Amino acid sequence: MALGVAVMGTVGVLIGILLGGSFFYFAAGLGVILGAGIGLIGGRRFFLGIFVGTFFGGALAWAVSGPENITVGAGSGAAMGGFLGIWISMLIDVFWRKPVQAVADHEAEAGSGGG
Asked: Whole domain around residue 39: which residue ranges?
């Protein structure tokens, strides 16, 4: 949960900086609340994707267009990192998990054949 609060809170702060004024507090608070919620339901891979995307997006924006666009690049990188993190997580679940029915059939065959 702490990772979720840190990551989403950081994204909220970056969005709040872009919006300016009192939106800063609203965006940061909303980011912390969403991060805690996602952290409670177990979104570690999602947060890792957001963290990596934020870092590389900000670094790329800094390298390409200078330090005044780091926040835009970090926000865009966080969004792309989140989407890619979910996509990779789904692929991992599809291709690297054992089918439940095949495992149950194998255990049933092993248990009944020794008689």
From this structure: 2-112
Quick one: which of 35, 29, 69, 72 has its CA closest to 50? 35
Q: Report how many domains make up the chain.
A: 1
Render each residue's pLDDT in the chain as its tens digit; 115 residues: 787 788 778 878 888 888 888 888 898 888 889 888 877 877 777 777 888 888 999 999 999 999 999 888 988 888 888 888 788 878 888 887 766 666 666 666 666 655 4
Q: What is the pTM of this model?
A: 0.55
Spell out the alpha helix ranges (H) of 1-115: 2-19, 23-40, 44-65, 70-95, 100-112
Degrees to nearest 5, angle at CA 78 with 88 and 3: 80
